[in-house]
Amino acid sequence: MDLSRVLFFSANKFPKRTAIISEGRRLTYEEFNGRVNRLAHALLRLGLKKGEKLAVLLHNSAELTEILFATVRIGGVFTPVNFRFVGEEVLYILNHSDARFFIYGQEFSDLVETIRSELKGVEVFISVGDSTAPSVLNYENLIEGSIASEPDITISEEDECELMYTSGTTGRPKGALLTHGNILWNLVNTILGREEKVGEVSLVVGPLYHTAALNNHFITRVALAGTSILIKDFDPEKVLRMIEKEKVSVISGAPAMYHLLLASPFEEYDRSSITKCTTGASILPDETRERLMKLFPNIQGVYDVYGCTEASPSIAILNAKDSLRKKECVGPPVPFLEVRVVDDQDRDVPTGEVGELVCRGPNVMKGYYKDRESTEETLRGGWLHTGDLGRMDEEGYVYIVDRKKDMIVSGGENIYPREIEELLYHHPKIRDVAVIGIPDPLWGESVKACVVLKPGERMKEEEVIEYCKRHLASYKKPKSVEFVDSLPRNPSGKVLKTVLRNRHLNRKGE
């Protein structure tokens, strides 16, 4: 069994059922599978070998999903790149991943040309859409000139399947290597934990470079022969129109998405088809949960999903029924996964006490690509150390208390302060800096930079924000900047970010 078989089975059982709706296009399972096979043969003809990385820079689209299945069907490793990254960040992913193939959207042509001379390993460039750059192949031409038969490639569950980049505290993204077996076991866990049904119509709002949107939402829908509506750019009213038009039954997203939907004129649209609502990335406030029950009157509750990229990603899922009795909870561990709460010596803590969440099971990653030290640290003792602080109640349900690392979650995107701090340290006017997450009513958290200037220097808040915007994806830039004389530190020199957060909260409370 391998990941591509989930599409093969659905296409053979339900060939005329709609698989994909994207930007006005509709593909049946028969059409979808045929295009995947044609692309797979084209990639084989171009020389893609088993185990090689194929990088993709695309918005949510039918083409991106075709590339996923075509790549894994012939043993390649699907490597999506965050479409919000700037050139420097895209360059790092492409070089670090050793990708030899690179498929990107026409809208990214200018970005690609700015970094092309610095790419170390990419040999085959393919554009989805027209490209005037030399030696760039056209995506549709490759498909049209290929055959639709099933490629004869032997793949095992132990073979690598996805290389998903997730930022780390070092400031550089780490690539989590996931196998076919990892994804398939995550699929089983997700279907059981979220009580998924055959043939549902789902809105895929989250970006498909995230494991939650890709593995939990899209692949689950394909496995159960449902319909995936791929949203390229989130717009509340566009989403509501789509729900009404296509009779959507499942919607999934981060709390920030639901906040935006609740702030829109939703009363104008028919939402009665929605029977399942799932959320993740950060805790959904109880007030928002209650309002969602009114926004979607036919749901029985909200499914909370907790996970991380390294777990493919599901770790715990709170079902709709339990969501009404378990407050601020992410549910029991998924069926085929062990979860413990441990202290700094990896010893179990008593029930109800806070510790680090660790887990072990067949959905846990193979390791970080080209990073043995981080792999050994994260998977020490055979357990995935999530870096999240949590507790378990007497029924075995999991509660997330805080992040052990200083990661910021804003609108469902993971933001790591160290990366922003390292950039700001390079500014000639800045002597010291600390980046923290502060509460944001819409996005969950927003980025705040606390900056110490060098003697005699002056800066405005806008100057700091603009500097970050030029070098980082826009969502990572600080939303606010505070200039301070010094940063609070402990005796070993570590910045006390808790003090900075408390100062901010105390001022807000005055």
Radius of gyration: 23 Å
Name given to the CATH homologous superfamily of one domain: ANL, N-terminal domain
Give the DSSP E fraction (strand runs of 2 or more residues).
Answer: 25-35%
CATH class category name of one domain:
Alpha Beta
CATH topology of one domain: Rossmann fold
Averaged pLDDT: 93
Number of strands: 25
CATH architecture term of one domain:
3-Layer(aba) Sandwich
- Unreliable spans are none
Query: How does the helix and strand content classify structurally?
Result: alpha/beta
**Biggest sheet statistics:** 8 strands, mixed
What does the model show?
The model has no long low-confidence stretch (mean pLDDT 93). It is built from 16 helices and 25 strands. The longest helix has 18 residues, at 29-46. It is of the alpha/beta class and 510 residues long. The strands form six sheets. The protein has an eight-stranded mixed β-sheet, with helices on both faces. Among the domains are: 1-15 and 22-155, ANL, N-terminal domain (Rossmann fold, 3-Layer(aba) Sandwich), CATH 3.40.50.12780; 408-509, GMP Synthetase, Chain A, domain 3, CATH 3.30.300.30. Helix content is 32%, strand content 26%.
Identify the notable features of this structure and list them briefly.
510 residues; alpha/beta; Rossmann fold; GMP Synthetase, Chain A, domain 3; eight-stranded mixed β-sheet; five-stranded parallel β-sheet; 25 strands; globular
Briefly characterize the structure.
The chain is of the alpha/beta class and 510 residues long.
